[in-house]
Amino acid sequence: MQTWSIFCRVVDNFGDIGVCWRLARQLAHEHPLRITLWVDDLAIFAKIRAEINPNLAEQKLESVTIRHWSEQWSADIQANDVVIETFACDLPTAYIEQMRSSTTPPIWINLDYLSAEDWVSGCHGLPSPQQGLSKYFFFPGFNDKTGGLIGEQSMRQQRRAWQSADAKQLRQQLAPKRPAETADTQYISLFAYENSALNAWLHRLKDSPNPIHLFVPQGRVLPQITQLFMQAELHAGEVYQYGAVTISILPMLPQDQYDQLLWSCDLNFVRGEDSFVRAQWAGLPMVWQIYPQSEDTHLEKLVAFLQLYLADLPDELAQALRDFYYTWNQGGDIAQSWTILNTEREVLRQHAKNWALRLAAQGDLATNLVKFTQSKLK
């Protein structure tokens, strides 16, 4: 059986390990491969998978061998057939030497960050000479000239089978202390960084004529809500009332359950890359807060994505959604765009569903990665 190694350095809280774990698990489940995932911070990994023991050098979970990537790297560790360096995390020098000395050099992949920028399609799959080997750049993306998005077949099957009764049961399970559901309640999940637009948006929700239930997983946005409420602390598992808004604070959810939360809301606010991708597979309206980068380079990625994502929407609605995304990421007046979006919810819902179908037609990242590497091994 072909052996693959995936190397992950945890840089941005849960995003890096979130992406790497989903990829490793899908490769192990859906393809005849032996997968090893090297992770430098097992304690962070344990936050999204409670089964992980941060003190073990090696363990196995869901058919994936997980090994601690320590500073003390053994020169005897043999290179696998395919080596994936995620997000330019720099492999150990001794491991590269093992790759160089292999009779059949491994296929070396640099899996990069997700971007909709035009240049990505031109660079996807290109080799780069590295220390006597070829390293191939592999880009996730939104068209058939890129690697696609991580999206397990099992997840997509479960999503298709997910019914309104399942959503109601999950909401009850996650927030048992909430008020009884009504037919006109709007459900929103909020996973975000600190945000200068948040308070103005919550003020508008507060005066909504219909009830709104806001699910807030614990994270960086929680202190801001705590300050708005003028409370010392908000607790996971508790429910708070803010005008028309019921706010449920959720503990850290397992990845699969977070996916189900996305399927069970009318609108999802997501951040970074991992939750952003999952919100797209949910096929429901979403608002993305992109991970901020120096010199505002992240805004170029935001513009590129919106150019694709909004292309099929009516002009006025596309402009309103664009304005809301920009305000959510940069601050500003949120009132007018929110009013338009909130009155066009059904159009946005159908648009999100169509977008998810379009992504699926391009194939998922793990399958495209296997096809790419097999073509190089021939």
UniProtKB/TrEMBL annotation:
Any one Gene Ontology molecular-function term assigned to this protein's record: translation elongation factor activity
Signal peptide: none
Catalytic activity: dTDP-beta-L-rhamnose + L-arginyl-[protein] = N(omega)-(alpha-L-rhamnosyl)-L-arginyl-[protein] + dTDP + H(+)
InterPro entries reported in the protein's UniProt record: EarP
Key words, A-Z: Elongation factor, Glycosyltransferase, Protein biosynthesis, Transferase
The keyword Glycosyltransferase is assigned to this record: yes
Similarity annotation: Belongs to the glycosyltransferase 104 family.
Primary role: Protein-arginine rhamnosyltransferase that catalyzes the transfer of a single rhamnose to elongation factor P (EF-P) on 'Lys-32', a modification required for EF-P-dependent rescue of polyproline stalled ribosomes.
Protein name in UniProt: Protein-arginine rhamnosyltransferase
Taxonomic path: Bacteria, Pseudomonadati, Pseudomonadota, Betaproteobacteria, Neisseriales
